[in-house]
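Work Package 4 report. The design task specified in the project plan requires that, given a folded chain encoded as structure tokens, an amino acid be chosen for each position. We show below one input record used in the internal validation round.
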């Protein structure tokens, strides 16, 4: 099994409601900047440095709410806000340029190369909404 094959991702509600099969040996790694108490009890550990930076998260959430107030459904508002704030571009830049993020990525890359199986967890259901954890997963896979 290659290092990138030991890296998966899911969302917290899928874990809480048994909607996803996660290998028992996998470490559930939260990648949330502002974890709630119930989130913390669902994952094994959390890397706040791999959540979106505060300014991006705040800007995104504000635009998401603005779009919802304009009558968009939650999914549509989420994805429209994602595009408008250039979320993907800015988050990828953060992963490559942010010292905290670089340190966390290096640590997780080492763990994968040592044979650990990791599952990234955050809040978004990516069946309907785009999410930073899939960008993070791609970024780590490229490092391996």
């Amino acid at each position: 099994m290659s290092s990138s094959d030991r890296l998966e991702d899911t969302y917290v509600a899928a874990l809480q409601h048994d909607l996803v099969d996660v290998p028992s040996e996998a470490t559930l790694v939260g990648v949330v900047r502002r974890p709630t108490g119930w989130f913390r009890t669902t994952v094994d550990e959390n890397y706040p440095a791999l959540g979106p930076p505060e300014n991006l998260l705040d800007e995104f959430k504000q635009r998401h709410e603005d779009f919802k107030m304009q009558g968009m459904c939650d999914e549509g508002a989420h994805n429209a806000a994602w595009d408008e704030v250039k979320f993907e571009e800015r988050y990828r830049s953060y992963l490559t340029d942010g010292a905290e993020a670089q340190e966390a990525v290096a640590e997780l890359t080492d763990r994968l190369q040592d044979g650990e199986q990791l599952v990234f967890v955050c809040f978004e259901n990516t069946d309907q909404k785009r999410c930073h954890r899939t960008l993070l997963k791609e970024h780590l896979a490229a490092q391996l």
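The longest helix spans residues 54-69. Validation will be extended to a larger panel in the next phase.
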